[in-house]
Fold this protein.
Amino acid sequence: MSLVYFASSRVAKWKYDDSMPGKLERLLDEINLNNYFQKNEWVAIKTHFGSDGAHRIVRPVFLKKVVDKIKKVGAKPFITDTVRIKGLDYLEVANQNGINHLSVGAPVVLADGLYGNDNILVKAGDILGEIAIATLIYDVPAMVVCSHVKGHINAGYGGAIKNLAMGAVSGSHRHCGWKCGRGAMHTIGEGKLIWDQEKCTLCLQCKEICPLDCIDFKNNVFTYDDERCWRCGRCSRVCPEGGLTLPADDDYFMRSLAEAASAVIKTFKEKKILYLNFLTEIQPECDCMPAADVPVIQDIGILLSDDIVAIEQASIDLLRKQIPLPSSLASEEKINPGEDILYSLHKRPYHIQIEEAERIGLGTRKYKLREIK
């Protein structure tokens, strides 16, 4: 049984110690960072920078608290993510969302370089074969994974496993392309995009959202660069008419997430990774989309553990107890109290990723929740 620390979002007293930043400091003191990080050791703080228009990420104030506590150990932290749009643009998105060296007190860098192809192939298992892990994450000796918990159109639930599987793996490799990157998880076989001309209204939302400018409509006919395409699925996600689809398989996808996360974790020695799950601003969609909807679940709090499976299980257990918020997508879809809100929104069996992570030895779903007061 693993220990998961929890700090509630509720504020009982009007004093700093009872604030969310104050509680985060106390969480980090509870787990004793000296047991995980050493003096002068580089520590990656892996988070998601968000998107131009998507602002419900882990707030910079929380990242700063993590940075400050790591510095007190004598280690050297930095904030990082992998390239999701063009590298320089992504750094500007991070800055726009408040993540920069002044706000967080540490360098902000891209884990796989400005072009997103600075990565190393690592054996991942039966499903993926090899996967391209960002070089910086491969090389760094320690890491804190700061995950914004939310819904996800493909994963159903996005937490620490998805943060590593999608966020520590590059979109493409120099030689094997998307087939060794995140796209390998998104698709079956070749994963060709399918365009239905009869449904298409030529709104061009797919073209506008493509992070690699792969899509074009010459003579009003859909075309895309098959070699460069990352298979991220954003184009099919935003199509209002269902005229663009990307083949997928839920079981394959969920198990491949666990497999990719395992490949990342195995590049670290034991007890060199900590996980922080922020159950705040829980919106229905990923932070990589060009907008952020209102939260579907009220803020719950922050979880901390050194067991990725335990913290994920604890997170979904807390989520499943919540009441859908009014004036949100959850209420629009008429989800009732007591229903699994994220499953009801996306109809994805997200529990598979956590069960598979336990099966392949990443941790245990049995946990003890210790709430700090």
Remarks:
- The CA atoms of residues 80 and 312 lie 21 Å apart.
- The first strand starts at residue 2 and ends at 8.
- The chain has two domains: 2-183+250-371, 193-245.
- The chain has a mean pLDDT of 93.
